[in-house]
Amino acid sequence: MAAMYKLLIDGKLVDGARSIGVVDPATAETFAECACADEAQLNLAIDAASRAFPQWAALPQDERGRYLLAFADALEARHGELIDLLTREQGKPTREATHEVFGAIYVLRFFAGQSLPGGKIRDTDDGAIFRQYVPLGVVAAITPWNFPLLLMLGKVAPALTVGNTMVAKPAATTPLTACLLGSIAADILPPGVLNIIVDDNDLGAALTAHADIAKISFTGSTATGKRVMSSASNALKRITLELGGNDPAILLHDVDVEIAAPHIFAAAMMNAGQVCFAAKRIYAPAALVDRLCAELARLTKEAKVGAGADPETVIGPLQNAVQFEKVRRFLADAKAAGTLVAEGQPSNQAGFFVAPAIVRDLSDDAELVREEQFGPILPILSYNSIDEVIARANNSPYGLGATIWASDTEKAIAVAERINSGTVWINKHFDLPFDIPFGGAKQSGVGYELGERGLTEYTQVKVINMTHFPRSADVAAGPLS
Ligand code: NAD
Q1: Can you tell me which atom of ligand 1 is nearest the CA of 147?
Q2: Is the pLDDT of residue 478 over 70?
Q3: Catalytic site residue 89?
Q4: DSSP helix/strand/coil, 238
């Protein structure tokens, strides 16, 4: 049977050399077949992107922008199909899938209107210095399974708008929305500008090591990010790595716990906790821990666990079997090492469901505190002084994000300034404006996405530095005159 979801190589939708079954996390059953490339097809995609590069790079930016806007319009015309497919393959509630699909469309529109014009930096009687931002060539985009559409288009949009071409590879457990994206792009973008390759979690190394890849934009785990960095070293390729996080949420003593708790719960449980910058460990002053636990317990019991397509669902299944087993292990260990405050109602369906759970009385050495759980299991930790909580929050190899919850925002800013992470949110969360750079400190990443800073990472800054020679008396004879 030919796979229904195809690869996009050189402008054509093609079957894979192999195929993979895609599992619905709400049922744990395979519901679709997807084309899967072998290394020869990967190489064809990279060749196509290389051949397409000179012409695409030579277009004026506003023409490339028009292609991206047409792509965004075509996605919007099929947003219902994208939302349903995203819910089905990823597991997230339809409401969250809707946000993701429109976020993906808006990121395309945003970058379609962005450019890096460069220009004259200095102009004197002696000469001038110009700066240009030139595209790099073929960019490899590698994405994980938690936000398959938004993370992919968050790379495609800036990379293409400044003139690169691309080979994009989704995670093997969420390839379908990427293929649908590819089938829509096939009718709009010139052949080879965007190629979509699906693998069985086995072509990432070949893609990153390929000599014709100029830059790798990778989002995924810190462990894989390290492999990407080492693979990129063969040709000193440019890299942007958006990696794991273990974000602390710190309540200050003056916070209104009843107001903050629902925000903190949402910050931890969105997408069943499978968010790189989800709140993953909560620090509350000792005097507030009981009240916070009581509020979070209530919210935990109220949150409906179920299939993403059910409009009542607040917490969908984990995305895949490996993550499901991992989170269940975290929960069992946390229950043994700490005190279970509350656990939600498990779904009676057969999928990868884990009910939300709140755990307290864990030490900072417990796995649930030290590691990224990427699931709906939340540790609540007690602290006694600001210096202590800042030291404990910073005592992590990760530094992606953090949140501070407080009434006195001046004090919250003072704490935020001492947190070693790429972003600190105060009294809010999940706010990533497209014009603001986002990146991880420490082992949460290298480089930035979004904003002008993120756009610049898809270019080489080139300087032309010149002086004027006196005009020669016999110019007319020169071959270039
Ligand atoms: P992963 O690292 O296992 O996989 C990510 C991608 O890398 C997949 O497409 C996979 O096929 C590919 N890959 C696997 N081996 C590779 C190799 N050797 N070379 C190149 N690519 C390879 O991550 P995951 O489990 O799919 O995703 C979850 C992780 O992603 C979490 O740690 C999460 O925090 C992180 N994440 C980070 C951000 C961010 O912006 N910082 C956003 C979302 C997710």
Answers
A1: 43
A2: no
A3: no
A4: strand
